[in-house]
Write a structure and sequence with these properties.
The complex is a heterodimer. Chain A is mostly helical. Chain A is built from 16 helices and no strands. Chain A has a single domain, classed as MetI-like (MetI-like fold, Orthogonal Bundle), CATH 1.10.3720.10. The chains are: A mainly alpha, B mainly alpha.
Amino acid sequence: MRKTNGDKIIDGIIVFFMLIVVIVMLYPLWNTLITSFNEARDSIKGSLYLWPRKWTLFNYQSVFKTEKVFNAFLVSVARTVLTMALNVLLSGLLAYVLSRKEFMFRRFLTVFMVMTMYLNAGLIPQYFLYRNLGLIDTFWVYIIPAMVGAFNVVVIRTYINSLPASLVESARIDGASELRIYFSIIFPLCLPVLATVALWVAVGAWNSWFDSFIFAPKQELSTLQYEMMKILSSSMQSGVRQPDYLAASNQTRNMVTPNSLRAAMTIVATVPILVVYPFLQKYFVTVNIGSVKE
Amino acid sequence: MITEKVSTESDIVKQQKPINRNSFWYKADKQKELILISIPFFIYIFIFSYLPLAGLTMAFQNYKPQKSFFDQEWVGLKHFKNLFTDPDFYRVMRNTLAMSIINLVLAFVTAIVFALLLNELTGRLNGFKRIVQTISYMPHFLSWIIVCGLVSTILAMDGGIINEILISLGLIKDKIHFMGTPEYFWWIVGFTNVWKSMGWNSIIYLAAITSIDPALYEAAAIDGYGRFGRMWHITLPGIKSTIIILLILNAGWILNAGFEVQYILGTNGLVLDVSETIDIFVLKRGFGRSGGFAFGTAAGMFKTVVSAAVLLLCNKIAGWLGEEKLV
């Protein structure tokens, strides 16, 4: 259809509206970015809108030099990488087993697993389970409960089902074991869907804080998100104590404020997501629609 | 030919040994590798998803963590009675329902309008459309901690840009304490949700719009409908079934008003009255008081049961409306 003048005016209005949306979406992050590069004591004066007034990298140095914060960063990285690797490997393996049409327990195991997406005992029974298993206040509480995801298994299994069945058949006739078929045939063929699941799991693990808060409150096991949570709630609520590294740096006038440190931490926590974002984007529609059809 | 082959094969089998290829043990032997691989998965799923369900019995006990299951004192529905006579329970239910409904309505309206408008960006504006989409999806991937941090910075009393803008436009004289005013809290939560997920929610509508027959637009244009007329009479009816399915799906989560935003932004004492949801109630009662475990479990169980009932009901309604059922 050719566009008339009236159409062009409407286009103009829509473009203007979209520009406002873009600004609203981006500005808060931009504001955080410039705060993170601005001297903390200068930021207190306010009116920091478009560009840093006094450039500094000190806020970032604080993130990586404050032992507790840096440790939290390492824990975040470790849990993300480990959860991602295990979840992809094991969800894929289970998906492969459930994709085998002749497998006698296929239907039972599928229902058994899919049911878990709807069953939820709630927080307190979950807490006691972890306590009885000795997971509370250990690093493994981040990893072990997140090793297999029912939804991920369903997504991967659908993908395996779309592969030609003759691949598995011929490998079996050649006498390959099931694990061997999975690792040398199925796994490489499933890389596109496994990559999607991997990124998905990684974003979830990287962003979570609630499990630190409830299941692993020990300082050594704190994550980047949980440290940000502590700083945020101490600055919003008078009753909550600041993390001690902030209190210490205030005493020595080390030029770091809760807001500036949090700004730098926010950027540190956001950059990895922005890096993987372009890779994720290809699969948005599939995952989004898949989750509705589920 | 096929029958011939089968009969000869079974003849051979009969001659050798009477093996029943359909017998349980024959199959189990053939598939022992698959079975061996599945056993750890079965145990894992059982422990982490089914075993906690046994913990729900706590709701009917005077649960003491140091005692074994058999030594617990059974109290019947005592905790549920306490729950339904607790004035705090009605307060958190009010907050949960209010925020749920505000979230639901805002999320739907903004995502649909956003998708409709994005869909209008065609031709030379296609590149611009893609940039807007990319940017609008991004907040979905940020954690709630980050999002709440951004919101509290933007709305801050000293130096928050919203206050600065409102003052410089002369709309207000004194700065507004957004985070400390109970009347604003539900709406802050609602619009925070919009900010985080409007773009993401619009994906599904955009996908639905692409399946609308372009000929309908041509026909509508010949009939004299303008841009907005076509949006209203073609696009919107075209995505109607998607909207209804999503509405039903989301209605099932009516008691999931969210937890993290309210917990993080609502911690200051000024808005506690309107910020606490049922999930926060479960958390605070369950872990906050001694012997609260059983009460917290009862409250959590109430929530699960009601959610399941609402979901099933909505699913029924979808069936009556002639829409595709979910379950």
